Backbone:
């Protein structure tokens, strides 16, 4: 039972997943700071709001006499966060890994595939032809 657990934990996929979760959490912090320090001030310039929570609010009266608030700024903020994360993941992780893999593939010597062995029928035809050529000599 303990050996099975040990094997499960030491398997590559579990370790890679754990590393990905930790890196993802750290990366989320970087994106949040980027949004707070750079994107939100830009939003304030264009929409006269301090952040996405206050930008592009649409208030609509509802049936109970109150009002419903549609926060389109939050949606735009979520899209910008997603695109920022996707761009950094692609340019920092995916693209360099693909380039390194391509470089390694170019440096690796090409594997020469051996010629396929002839079939039994082809061997018998070849033997027959050799025997016939020796008879005619």
Residues:
């Amino acid at each position: 039972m303990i050996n099975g657990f040990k094997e499960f934990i030491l398997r590559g996929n579990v370790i890679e997943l754990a590393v990905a979760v930790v890196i993802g959490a750290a990366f989320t912090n970087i994106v949040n700071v980027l949004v707070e320090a750079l994107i939100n001030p830009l939003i304030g310039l264009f929409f006269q709001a301090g952040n996405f929570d206050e930008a592009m609010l649409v208030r609509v009266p509802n049936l109970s006499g109150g009002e419903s608030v549609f926060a389109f700024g939050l949606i735009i903020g979520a899209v910008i966060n997603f695109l920022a994360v996707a761009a950094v993941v692609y340019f920092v992780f995916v693209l360099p890994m693909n380039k390194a893999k391509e470089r390694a593939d170019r440096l690796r010597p090409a594997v020469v595939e051996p010629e396929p062995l002839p079939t039994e029928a082809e061997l018998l035809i070849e033997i027959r032809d050799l025997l016939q050529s020796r008879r005619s000599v």
User: Anything to note?
Assistant: The longest helix spans residues 12-47. The CA atoms of residues 31 and 65 lie 39 Å apart. The helical segments are 2-10, 12-47, 72-107, 120-135.
